[in-house]
Write a structure and sequence with these properties.
Number of strands: 10
Helix content: 25-40%
Low-confidence stretches: 1-28, 385-392
CATH architecture: Alpha-Beta Barrel
Structural class: alpha/beta
Radius of gyration: 20 Å
Shape: globular
Distance between the termini: 29 Å
Strand order of the largest sheet: 1-2-3-4-5-6-7-8
CATH topology: TIM Barrel
Strand content: 5-15%
Length: 397
């Protein structure tokens, strides 16, 4: 997600999955932690000078964005990628690429997926690719609805994801094809509620008759509602609308996946599909800090609160075996405090604009080192019929 698209939402991450609550201290975790941070991609040294602070905190994943401009042979920022991909590999950092249209209009699936395959072929060490970004939002995938198809967005996205899955697997069967990057809510009246979108993709998949999967993992952006809600406070951090989800509500995502795909060739979290939480973060208040310019235009938390919340995020999701990765948005704060769509900045990072650590850096480092210190999260689906417009909760323990 672009920080600018969330000026009104003030998203970020609050944590109270009914998950990590007690017992089994020191339990291990397969969850990886990292950042959604393009600064490393654009750095003059390919990020080599930044990676020691990244890996020093136990962060091993770095997600970059790459946008499709309509030409299957053109890779925007190719010179930066050519320099940054080897630098990341040398530092032991696993790169995830988020591939999506530069403009909101739905791309031609054949051209877009040929482009995605070209990206994958040029960077064979990158084996995790997200197809699309917040595809339930008109800002990134449009139209969502037409006069002849109320589910135009999910329908066109399902066809695109299926085609890209095959194209990327043809390049390298070991590529992990990650779907959707769902926004946690419908950001405007023309967008689609994320869980409605997910179920509609499932309906399109079933209607297509396809007998192969369309994704190996699902990416979600479970920002809480609102930014300032502290964990644990599920009533504040989550969404009342059953079609939305916040961090305390991953059970809703798992249930929607099960509703959409159970009994088909597409796995769900009940039989192996993993979740990538590839954007999460709290904006800290940096008013008066000389490293920043402008003025805050959205709710914030203190630096100490940000640190405490991030530690809880790590602990919670280290206990959830369905969560493959959690990526903080960003590593390095943007210097502009204003979060307007035209001049937006975002201060959810672990470091100040000059690269010095914020309190959250040490908190995340300690939490990653501790791993899951509570009860491992389990989940089971609710198998009853879901009426239109309703959402089953499943059981997330």
């Amino acid at each position: 997600m672009s920080a600018r698209s969330w000026a009104a939402v003030l998203a970020a991450a609050c944590v109270t999955l009914v998950a990590c609550v007690s017992a089994s201290a020191g339990a291990g975790s397969g969850t990886a932690f990292g950042v959604a941070e393009d600064a490393t991609k654009y750095a003059s040294d390919g990020g080599a000078s930044i990676y020691p602070s990244l890996t020093g905190a136990g962060l091993t994943e770095n997600r970059w964005t790459v946008t499709f401009t309509g030409d299957a042979s053109a890779i925007p920022g190719q010179a930066f990628l050519d320099r940054a991909v080897p630098a990341a590999a040398a530092a032991g950092v696993d790169v995830i690429l988020s591939l999506y249209p530069a403009h909101s209009s739905t791309p031609d699936p054949a051209v877009f997926c040929a482009w995605a395959a070209n990206v994958a072929a040029r960077y064979p060490t990158v084996t995790k690719l997200i197809v699309g970004n917040e595809v339930n939002a008109t800002r990134f995938w449009s139209p969502q609805h037409t006069g002849s198809d109320a589910n135009a967005g999910p329908d066109s996205y399902e066809a695109t994801l299926a085609r890209c899955y095959d194209a990327l697997k043809a390049v390298n069967p070991a590529i992990t094809v990650i779907g959707m990057g769902l926004a946690p809510r419908a950001v405007d009246g023309n967008s689609t509620k994320p869980l409605d979108f997910l179920r509609a993709v499932g309906a399109a998949y079933r209607h297509s008759g396809r007998t192969a999967p369309i994704m190996d993992a699902l990416a979600v952006h479970p920002y809480p509602n609102p930014n300032a809600s502290p964990p644990p406070a599920p009533d504040n951090a989550g969404y009342q609308d059953p079609g939305f989800f916040g961090i305390p509500q991953l059970g809703r995502v798992k249930q929607a996946l099960w509703d959409a795909f159970h009994g088909t060739a597409q796995p769900t979290t009940a039989n192996g599909l993993e979740l990538y939480l590839d954007e999460i973060g709290y904006q800290s208040n940096e008013t008066g800090n000389p490293l920043y310019t402008g003025s805050e235009s959205s709710p914030t938390v203190t630096e100490q609160q940000q640190a405490a919340y991030y530690a809880r995020i790590v602990g919670m999701f280290a206990c959830d075996p369905s969560v493959a990765a959690v990526l903080f948005f960003h590593l390095i704060d943007e210097a502009n405090l204003n979060t307007s769509p035209t001049s937006g900045g975002w201060q959810s990072g672990l470091e100040y604009p000059n690269g010095a650590p914020k309190p959250s850096y040490g908190a995340v480092k300690a939490a990653i080192a501790a791993g899951c210190t509570g009860r491992v999260t389990t989940w089971s689906p609710s198998t009853g019929h879901t009426p239109p417009g309703k959402t089953k909760k499943g059981k997330n323990h």
